[in-house]
């Protein structure tokens, strides 16, 4: 075959082409990220009236998010998606059905291992107490490996069924009509067992978070390839629908895992009875061994739990004494020296501590006071390394699997190997930069705003506004009378050009260092109480945050492009993204109200799902597939950290144990909004066609 | 390569009517046809703010485009039958046209499949407009809407937009090619021969197609056809809509030459343009994934590039119905190098077994793109 001569471009010409191209990609992402960033910053500064801490780091982070997204999307478009599509086209021609199914299962399983969203779930359940929800606690901690496997099996089954659908042109509707009621029944039944009830929120959330920004585009592209080769002319949704199944099957497998583990699980109960000596063997499985159990008792349990575990106060005291004196015991129980000292300083009963100190059995090394925040950002190198590793882990095994199957089993060459390789490299770089950016920038703003949100409707203490006064002298304390006739202490502080009175509280005064730490109280800014304007503003905030964050989601972007491509531009990416974003906004506002008013999750999910069943039956196959798939892609790397920051912010201030359910709500409402758009559009098109008949057409 | 003269029938209907169209093709016993998704752009009455701003508004409807080659002797009867069964007489139902073409096929594909098994007898006689011209405009993805709206603005007929991917200079570059957008919009419109030249020039102006990197436009003769004239949806202010009036006049006149524009002053800044003449278009179909290599072979033999779109082919035979995912590559080449290019394609394996290779050649009297200074 004659070779086409290659055209070589000079450096200047190349730059002439490269620069506008890069500029365009970056500006696209700037516009998609700008909305959420501007919104959060304005909210923090104008509504909450706070300044933004760490603005420099945040700006750097946001720059990385934009850059990362630009790289990542380009990598998807020229590398991962073409790879998926080529393999999808070749598989049905070159291999047999059992192989395709096995491959689909492995792909689903691999996708879950590659993008383990388990960290997200752990964060959502960070404040779950072992005695309140033993099964949930176990799944999030020691049993998290099993949880990942069960989710992976669920996604594997989902991809398998997805491919079967494409090959035989099955409709998605029967799957929805069987799976959703089945899951609902399971969830309702689980309400009769406290342990199972506690994991139902987790199970519904896993569905949404498992389908990440690498898996979705890959599986979409693969599906499009396979369904083009399908023997049926239509049906099968043209490549969509796998994401839906991948959101539903894991709920089933996680509930099943919970069901089997539950046989040996202690029931949720009061702290005292949970840690009672008689139960010791049954609760030990939650923590591993006895030392781990003891560590949990000491570090998490309250006085009742400690009393129950040690039986008598003398035993406890003797144990602490032993720990204080023996390096070996200390390390065995606490892992590190500083953990023990922190514990002595923060959690040890005050009288016990002073007795130990007086008896000379324990000396505070001092450093323990400088308590390190639990999730302090690591060094720059650590952040870089961790995120690059994560990106490699998310992309290389999956694309590697596809490449190996394509090259060695299907034995087909890549049409444009250089583009695909470049795409994979770009995707890895993009994802790494993007996750670093999220960590430094978006999560940072999210946490600041999230932590301060409850100030809208109740007083909160804003640690970011903390001030420390050095050389504090008790002589400066003054007294004043309050309306009740008692006295209160305060002192004057000069701030700028004015003087401000600050109430004096003795526990904030450190006598040895002569410092006074003042954490200003903020709010309620817009009226207190659970039905106040402040709560209303919070819900509106939640809506816009969900809306704006969704517009920046890469997986949704990829879904939108694919939809626009498949429908030859008759279903625009913009329309889909708007519909989904509005749905997510509503979902997050509803999820927040779940936390605020402590509404059981079933009440939030049952009505929309019931409505969905009805609307699904009414809608055409195309819209059903697209709408249900949008549910899976909404909960991605931009939305999730922000939602969790907000959920945790509100949850912590409200004393609510877990933030599960917001993500599930954020998944169901976009389906509703997209189906609504679909029904409206098809109604109008049908009307237009019907109008032709009305005019007396020959048809 | 031996090429067989055939008639190439294309019709486009609303996606809702797709299943019905497919059933009709089954009834007719069409043994091989291809179909793909497209979109129709239709004007509509602006509402709200847009009405106040006197802005234009458009509906973009999903459509399905079917096409197949058939024996020219049978083409009239088949076209009549489809026209009647699909209710095309009603403006807004769809478009149908017949083009002269020459067909080349892989041996196993069976040239005899161009024979329609059950030649139908239409009840009435639909009157097709003769002497039409198809104008195909290929522009960057996203810019097809502007072309389509310009077509609507001139009141011609409902334009049809499909997607394609361009290959050409792009694939002769190194990796820097990724900066070069390959996705294209392909806009097709069928107009009467008398106004073709004027429309052609107008579209060149709209798309700035005589400037570098903008796109490509070409004309092809159409034997006869039925145009979808429902270019605007809105309130009907008269006993018949303008579209129905035009349709009726076309029918009475027997062609659409009466529609020729009288205002020659607004026409054509086209003088001095360098048109490409004596070209042919090659529509090459092959298995999905194979087009890239074949197009490269054609380029080595002298073709400038191609626009590749996706299509599906339904092939019925004694062993039942099979559906194949194909790529459809459109190449415009000088007539004199046609033979060389076809040989190169054959040598590159176009007609290899399992590739479902096929060639349709049509004449292209006029084409235009940026040709350098």
How many whole angstroms does the radius of gyration of chain B measure? 20 Å
Quaternary assembly: heterodimer
Structural class estimated from helices and strands of chain B: alpha+beta
How far apart lie the N and C ends of chain B? 36 Å
How far the N terminus sits from the C terminus of chain A, by CA atoms, comes to: 52 Å
Characterize the largest beta sheet of chain B: strand count, sense, and whether it forms a barrel. Answer: 13 strands, mixed
> Any idea what the radius of gyration of chain A is?
29 Å
What does this structure look like?
- The complex is a heterodimer of chains A (699) and B (373).
- Chain A is mainly α.
- Chain A has helices at 11-47, 55-94, 97-114, 118-124, 134-140, 144-168, 173-190, 194-210, 215-228, 242-261, 271-274, 280-287, 290-299, 303-310, 313-325, 327-334, 337-346, 350-358, 380-409, 417-452, 533-550, 554-566, 573-597, 601-618, 621-634, 639-654, 662-694, and strands at residues 460-461, 467-469, 478-481, 487-495, 498-503, 509-510, 515-518, 521-522.
- Chain A is built from 27 helices and eight strands.
- In chain A, the strands form three sheets. In chain A, strands 2-7-6 form a three-stranded antiparallel β-sheet, with no helix packed on it.
- In chain A, α3 runs antiparallel to α19 (380-409) and α22 (554-566) runs antiparallel to α25 (621-634).
- The longest helix of chain A is centred in the N-terminal third of the chain and has 40 residues, at 55-94.
- Chain A is globular, with a radius of gyration of 29 Å.
- Chain B contains eight helices and 13 strands.
- In chain B, β11 and β12 form a beta hairpin.
- The chains are: A mainly alpha (699), B alpha+beta (373).
